[in-house]
């Protein structure tokens, strides 16, 4: 028998959802079997899977001890010396300026030392996150950018901030502006481009399509040329939709691939010049709330910027 108390970050969840996060190594079938067989009690009462947990509730488990263990892999961030560039931070959120080359989450190219690992290590060092106390919540990223794209990523420090920020992003109440260096001199200096993009997860790329389909979604991208030099253009880009590789695919489709991009263009010449990946930066975020955002209302109207990317110096 083991007992634990529900914290503020764990509250508001159904029992089965909480246990799925709490016991990540437990098969779902076994999880529901434990609940059905009355091996889980909430405040001393046998609970059902849809029981909603409240802060201060006491859970008592009559389940195998093996599921209470924590794998070394899941705690790898504890050994990190955090190296994270913080643009803004308060009790609820943190905005990081990610460097190009760092994955935001573990993937095929990077399994440790990712931005989310750096975030956990940073908050643990500051005493704001204790993985031994938190059972179902861990500091989490609210938005993502490609590994080789630099710039702003928002992280939530608590469960309520994560829930609200995810809803803010779904409602498109954040204005995101990117800076990019693209090949060529644009005949049209400012425009909005609408394309149909089909995502291929196996190839980790998108393709432009003429007609719709199962995995085809509309991508709307606005750009403005703000500088030109030596056959390159510096762009300010606003996204009206959030599709995979939207900027890279759009610029390549209209004949102006991003400098260094080898996925949507041939970049052999760019590599010889030292540009081995797309020159793209998630440069600014502005919160434009249209509804009540609870504990994050104070962010309304605020704007944050990343450090100026190096490729901007090509236009000086």
The number of distinct helices, counting runs of at least 4 residues, comes to 6
Percent in helix: 10-25%
Q: In what range is the share of β-strand residues?
A: 25-35%
Counting copies of identical and different chains, the oligomeric state is: single chain
Radius of gyration: 23 Å
Q: Could you spell the SSE succession in H and E letters?
A: EHHEEEEEHEEHEEEEEHHEE
Strand elements, count: 15
What is the terminal separation in angstroms? 67 Å
**Which residues form runs of ≥5 with pLDDT under 50?**
none
Mean pLDDT figure: 92
Q: Sum up the overall morphology in one term.
A: elongated
Q: Summarize the main sheet.
A: 11 strands, mixed
Instruction: Kindly name the structural category.
Output: alpha+beta
How would you characterize the overall build of this protein?
It is a single chain. By secondary structure, the chain is an alpha+beta fold. It contains six helices and 15 strands. It has helices at about 15-20, 30-35, 115-125, 160-170, 245-255, 270, and strands at about 1-5, 40, 45, 60, 85-90, 95-100, 140, 150-155, 175-185, 190-200, 205-210, 215-230, 230-240, 280-285, 305. Strands 5, 6, 7, 8, 9, 10, 11, 12, 13, 14 and 15 form an eleven-stranded mixed beta sheet that branches. A four-stranded antiparallel beta sheet has the order 1-4-2-3, with no helix packed on it. A hairpin with a 2-residue loop joins strand 12 (about 215-230) and strand 13 (about 230-240). The longest helix has 12 residues, at about 160-170. The relative contact order is 0.12. The model has no long low-confidence stretch (mean pLDDT about 90).
